[in-house]
Amino acid sequence: MTTTASTVTVFGKGNMGSAIAGIFRDAGSEVQVLDSSAGADTTVTGEIVVLAVPYQALSGIAGTFGAQLAGKTVVDITNPLDFATFTLLPAADSSATAELAALLPEAHVLKAFNVNFAATLAAKANGSEPTTVLVAGDDAAAKESFSATVTAGGLRVLDAGALSRARELEATALLQMGLAAAGQISWTNGFAVVK
Asked: Which of 98, 104, 152, 110 lies closest to 134, judged by CA?
């Protein structure tokens, strides 16, 4: 039987971090919210740790909290974009999540939430469809606990495959954000999964 996480830490107090913290609170988890500038004297209490921070902040968090994150499920939600050119920053055979996993070899790193806009997470709906979170990662137990907790928080979760699929998730987000920035779709909806 898959259990839900009783404790979650969210790094980031912006729109995404706030919406994600709300989902986990709705799941009954105790949620710790930290600013991305939290120092090494901070204790990370969550079994699941969500990095709702800019891509450029990942390496600093890994450097500061790497030892504390060992054995935890660490969720990367970043979209590593050059916003001037709307191109992905990592090498073509990599992703932000793969880079993070290399920095945190003892953590269970997942990619999730990056193809969701904050409004769809907060509303738990994307148009007429329930909000669907796509999750990629190599640790089955970490994915199951994460998925069960997010589902308990009122969202739908689909397994997008191995951690290597993070690259495609980041590319999907790039396309979606480009369409929104051009005014062709709304920042309050975006792509939805119809089941």
From this structure: 110
Cβ 4 vs Cβ 144: under 8 Å: no
Can you give the residue ranges of every domain in the chain? 7-181
User: Please, are residues 65 and 100 in contact by the beta-carbon 8 Å criterion?
Assistant: no
SS3 at position 114: coil
- Is there a contact between 142 and 44 (Cβ–Cβ < 8 Å)? no
CATH number of 7-181: 3.40.50.720
Asked if 76 contacts 96 with a C-beta cutoff of 8 angstroms, the reply is: yes
Whole-prediction pTM: 0.96
Tell me the CA distances in angstroms from 69 to 65, 73, 184, 191, one per residue in order: 6, 8, 39, 32
Residue-wise pLDDT tens digits, 6-25:
999 999 999 999 999 999 99
